[in-house]
C-alpha cells in the first residue's frame, strides 16, 4: 500500500528525502507551477472556440464618472473642461454596436468604415475629432488611468482642440466573450451642434444612450478630421452592444478574468503556506541549509502571476 503520508511529507516538509527542502519549493517544481499557470490561461482562451460561453469582467462603469475623471485630468493639466454632447454619446454608441456586430477590435472596420463616419451619421459636424477605446476594465478610474498612462491616449484626453465629449459604456457578446466596452469621443464642432451640461447618473443610466431631441440637418460639403496625435492612429473607445443570448445552448459559464485571479491567488496562498511550513520546520529542527533560495523563487513566481493578472486587466486602443 502506498505510503501517502511519506509522499505528502516529501512534498511539503523538509527532510532527508528532499534534501531538507520541501519538494514543492525546488526550482524544477517552481518552473512546473509557472508552466501550469500559463497553460491554464491558454486553455481559457480556447474555451469560446469549443462552444463554452465565456463571461467577461463584470464591471459597473459610470459614464459621468468617466467624464468627471477626464475633466479632472484636464484641470490638473491646466486645460479647459469638456462639455457633454449627447450627439457624441450617440455616435459612440453606434460605433460600439458596429464593432460588436462585426466582431472587430480596431479603429477602422473590416469593411473600411472609419470612425469619423459615426460622427457625421449622428449629426455632429466637427472641426476636430478623436476617439479613445477601452475594454474589460473594472472601474472608471482604472479605465481613465490606463488612457492617461498611454502617451497617445493622454494627448487625446488633454488636447485643447476639443471642447465636447461623449461616452458610452455597454456590455455584450464580443467574439464569444461577455465584454464591457467603453467609447470616449472628443470633438470641436461648428456653432449649430448641440452641447449639453454634463449628465447625472440618473440622466444617462450608466450607458450614455441619451440622444438629442434635435440634430443639425445640414452637413458641411467636406469634413476634414484632425487627428490627435497626428503621427499615430488616434486612440478610440469601443462600445459593446447589448447583444442577444446565443441561439445554441451553452451549459458552462467561465469567467477568464475571475479564473485568472482565482488561480493566481490560490497558487500564491498555497506556496506561501508551504514556504511558511518549510521555514518553521527548518528553524525548529535547527537544520543547516546552504544556498536555500525559496524566497527568491517565491518572489519570481509572484511576479509572473502579477504580470498575468495585469495583462488580463483590460485593453485600450
Q: If classified by CATH, what would the architecture of the domain at 63-189 be?
A: 3-Layer(aba) Sandwich
- Silhouette: elongated
For the termini, the CA-CA separation is 59 Å
Task: Describe the sheet with the most strands.
Answer: 5 strands, mixed
Helicity level: 40-55%
Gyration radius over CA: 26 Å
Question: Could you name the CATH topology of the domain at 63-189?
Answer: Pathogenesis-related Protein p14a
How does the helix and strand content classify structurally?
alpha/beta
Q: What's the number of extended β-strand segments?
A: 7
Low-pLDDT segments, ≥5 res:
194-253
Determine the number of helices (DSSP H or I, runs of at least 4 residues): 10
The overall pLDDT average reads 73
N-to-C order of helices and strands: HHEHEHHEHHEEHEHHE
Order of the strands making up the biggest sheet: 2-4-5-3-7
Q: What is the CATH homology-level superfamily of the domain at 63-189?
A: CAP
**How much of the residues is beta strand, in percent?**
5-15%
Q: What is the CATH first-level class name of the domain at 63-189? A: Alpha Beta
Amino acid at each position: 500500500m502506498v505510503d501517502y503520508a511519506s509522499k505528502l511529507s516529501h512534498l511539503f516538509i523538509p527532510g532527508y528525502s528532499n534534501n531538507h527542502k520541501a519538494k514543492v519549493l525546488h526550482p524544477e517544481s517552481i518552473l512546473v507551477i509557472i508552466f501550469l499557470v500559463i497553460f491554464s490561461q491558454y486553455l481559457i482562451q480556447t474555451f469560446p472556440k469549443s462552444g463554452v460561453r465565456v463571461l467577461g469582467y463584470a464591471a459597473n462603469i459610470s459614464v459621468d464618472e468617466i467624464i468627471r475623471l477626464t475633466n479632472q485630468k484636464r484641470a490638473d493639466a491646466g486645460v479647459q473642461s469638456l462639455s457633454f454632447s449627447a450627439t457624441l454619446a450617440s455616435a459612440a454608441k453606434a460605433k460600439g454596436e458596429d464593432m460588436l456586430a462585426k466582431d472587430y477590435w480596431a479603429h477602422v472596420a473590416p469593411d473600411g468604415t472609419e470612425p469619423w463616419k459615426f460622427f457625421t451619421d449622428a449629426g455632429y459636424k466637427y472641426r476636430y475629432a478623436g476617439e479613445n477605446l477601452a475594454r474589460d476594465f473594472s472601474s472608471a478610474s482604472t479605465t481613465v488611468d490606463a488612457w492617461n498612462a498611454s502617451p497617445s491616449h493622454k494627448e487625446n484626453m488633454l488636447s485643447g482642440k476639443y471642447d465636447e465629449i461623449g461616452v458610452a459604456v455597454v456590455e455584450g457578446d464580443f467574439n464569444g466573450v461577455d465584454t464591457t466596452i467603453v467609447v470616449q469621443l472628443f470633438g470641436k464642432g461648428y456653432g449649430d451642434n448641440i452641447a449639453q451640461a454634463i449628465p447625472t447618473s440618473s440622466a444617462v443610466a450608466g450607458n450614455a444612450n441619451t440622444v438629442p431631441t434635435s440634430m443639425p440637418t445640414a452637413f458641411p460639403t467636406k469634413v476634414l478630421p484632425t487627428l490627435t496625435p497626428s503621427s499615430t492612429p488616434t486612440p478610440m473607445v469601443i462600445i459593446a452592444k447589448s447583444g442577444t443570448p446565443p441561439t445554441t445552448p451553452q451549459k458552462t459559464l467561465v469567467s477568464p478574468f475571475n479564473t485568472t485571479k482565482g488561480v493566481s491567488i490560490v497558487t500564491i496562498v498555497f506556496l506561501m503556506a508551504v514556504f511558511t511550513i518549510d521555514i518553521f520546520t527548518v528553524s525548529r529542527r535547527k537544520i543547516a541549509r546552504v544556498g536555500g533560495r525559496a524566497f527568491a523563487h517565491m518572489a519570481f513566481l509572484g511576479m509572473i502571476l502579477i504580470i498575468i493578472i495585469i495583462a488580463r486587466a483590460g485593453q485600450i486602443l
